[in-house]
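User: For my dataset I need records formatted as: sequence, then structure tokens, nothing else. Please produce one.
Assistant:
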Amino acid sequence: MIPLRDENPTSRPPVVTWLLVLACVAVFLVQSGVIGGGQNDLVVDYALVPHRVFADDHHAVIEVAGESGRVERVVIGPTALARWLPARLAEWCTLFTCIFLHGSWLHLLGNVWVLLVFGDNVEDRYGRLRYLLFYLVCGVGASAVHLLSDPGSSVPTVGASGAIAGVMGSYLLLYPHARVLTLIPFILPFLVVLPASLFLGFWFLVQFLHGAVEKSAIGGVAWMAHVGGFALGLGITAVMRVLGLLRPPAAPIVLRPYRARY
């Protein structure tokens, strides 16, 4: 299911959400060589590689596609952050740096689109500075869950998915009845308006089931990072609401019947 937009007003522009999107896009432009020219090694230098974090020499063996198309095993050294920080601390810092990297244009566009759909309302309730801190904490927390769930993995982990999963968990708690216009791309794609509770609950269930039965590297998806980020976002928002630290919603959600659109 692909979210296209939600029917949920905000009281002010989502400046931080826009800036986070721009940051991810800018980093990917550098990473892919569009800015600066030439392919960059940002993934090797700043991705989270669980085995490298725990290895004594902070080296890891990863598999990459060579010029011939064959998969080759390559030894990578410590993260580039080790130039300025102690090696062990530098590796732990990749739990943060990896959330601004992406594996492809499709990976990037999918993440930033979901962030734009759900992030504006969460930012509206948190306030800009708190929302930024919330996003980063969810991202690092999701990276930590992935690291602990698969500590021997040598697959470089990148992407804002864990942080965005935190935003989705927060949205579920704050706006369970909000309407989400959803594309369901089966044999005959159609649009349907779903309550956020159904859309986000189903999304979380899929991530949890994959994470329960597969190693996180299978399929190139860090399933447990998604699960951890979602749970963390939901939990933080629950605490914030109990403490009365959230701003009031812009307007009440108006309930309307669901309609499928073919």
